[in-house]
Write the structure tokens for this entry.
Amino acid sequence: MTPLSFVFLGLSITSSWGNGHATTYRGLVRELAARGHDVLFLERDAPWYAAHRDFARPPFARVELYDGTDDLAARFRGDVERADVVIVGSYVPDGAAVGRWVQRVARGRTAFYDIDTPVTLRKLAAGDAEYIARDLVGRYDVYLSFTGGPTLSRIVREHGAKAARALYCSVDPELYFPEDRPRAIDLGYLGTYSRDRQRALDALLVEPARRLPDARFVVAGAQYPREVAWPPNVARIEHVPPGEHRAFYNAQRFTLNVTRADMVRAGFSPSVRLFEAAACGTPIITDTWPGLDDVFVTSGAAREILVARGAGDTVALVRSLPDAERRAVAARARRRVLAAHTAAHRAEELERIARALLDASSARAARRPAAGRMPLLENNPDQGGMA
């Protein structure tokens, strides 16, 4: 098939500090390039990422930094004009202005890639979504969402999107795999501080640490307030760069997943940490949310993930789950992720969406050569999650 040209305008691909976007973009862009496509990633040169760049020059695509919207327009107008598909991501600085510029300039198809869908929809409802605006939602040809399920219909029905498709996060199996090393940590957690997530973290890790003083726990992530009182058996790590994630997971008997409140309410929002830990063969203890059963088996003899609803559940799992069952749960989760949730799967899905957009555009142009931009994707539930 003919290679396509993609331009991404995303929060960051060069720095994973304090964000989960970078790992998603790295895997997706690399796999698009492996499929023969040309990819340009444009990133605002933000000082907080400049100080923590852990992947400054990706070898698989062209990555360029820009200073602001004027610099973006001056230097990259031609790239955006010529691209087959231009994708603007959530949380891009001045994202609404960037999106309006893309809509004016792009000759190909455009998409909004929302890595924070429930948060974005709440912000849209409150009128304070600085990176997307109500009128812009319907101007993109497709809304790509980290959240699936009923939220896709909401995006179309309530926010005017032409079409909405789920494009979940993913994992790179070449970077995340089991290692033969001592499991010195009984339960670990990797995640940037979020006030709405802290209550669940307290219930599912901090309180169990108090009840199990001889067990070892670790919390890794940036921006935790100084006033958080950690028990003495909870180690703190400020930041674990992606290159060290595999070692981090492989040092744990169990790892904890805690979901942000907006994602719990929306459901169908699997975290990249779920897929990373599963690929490493580390058993996952998680809170629960609608749609979790669509991603992993949560009960019975074939369960692939361990659900905890309070401190007692965590304590029982850490202290009493037989080691053979712990390893079997992890092995089943790893098989599931490798079969459906790798970066290669997501790149193939995105390519399919892009070709559908371009094919529909060509067909409409042939029938109506004088027509302007039209909705191009039908809201067909048979097309991989279309609302």
Notes: Residues 195 and 260 are 9 Å apart (CA to CA). The chain is about 40% helix and 15% strand. The chain has two domains: 5-170+343-367, 185-340. The radius of gyration is 21 Å.
